[in-house]
Design goal:
24% helix; 5 helices; 172 residues
Length: 172
């Protein structure tokens, strides 16, 4: 998927509660995949303002897509190699990184100019206004330094190997 498409999808998303970044990240990944509608906010409405981390989504299947924690899958490859393989396979990938607000979840939209483009939303005041898209660039060479941070991706059934672009194109 093209970075511009992912950015457009994330731009239409909102973080509804101050402490709902994990459910918000799950929703963004599902939306990027095209598995749910842009108006889908069930995960945030369920968890609301609680810091649940990955507890409610790891190994959970929503709309035919299963969330997997990258660190739970053994590999001899580097963290960067594994992320690059997921992106090349058009998997929706998210990562938790330290910010001035504590840890926060970001969609890895792809690579631009030797840096990963990370996108997210914050609920600035905690009243559902979380409409500002935050763009962060993380140099590709630096990602291995975050290998101890949670990284999650979507896995789908063999029968769905092609991207679900039909739903994505309906957002206009």
């Amino acid at each position: 998927m093209i970075i511009n498409q992912i950015e457009s999808i994330v731009e239409q998303h909102s973080q509804k509660y101050r402490s709902s970044c994990s459910p918000s990240l799950a929703e963004m990944l599902l939306k990027v995949r095209g598995a749910v509608a842009i108006a889908y906010y069930d995960e945030q409405h369920r968890d609301q303002n609680t810091n649940v981390g990955l507890n409610n989504i790891n190994n959970r299947t929503i709309a035919g897509q299963t969330f997997r924690r990258l660190q739970d899958t053994p590999s001899v490859k580097s963290f960067q190699q594994r992320i690059d393989e997921l992106l090349a396979a058009e998997k929706s990938v998210g990562i938790y990184l330290p910010t001035q607000f504590g840890f926060h979840g970001f969609v890895i939209a792809g690579v631009e100019q030797c840096s990963y483009l990370l996108l997210s939303k914050y609920s600035e005041l905690g009243h559902g206004e979380g409409s500002i898209t935050f763009r962060v660039s993380l140099r590709v060479a630096e990602i291995n330094g975050f290998s101890d941070r949670d990284c999650i991706y979507l896995e789908w059934p063999e029968s769905q190997q092609a991207p679900l672009l039909a739903k994505i194109t309906q957002i206009d």
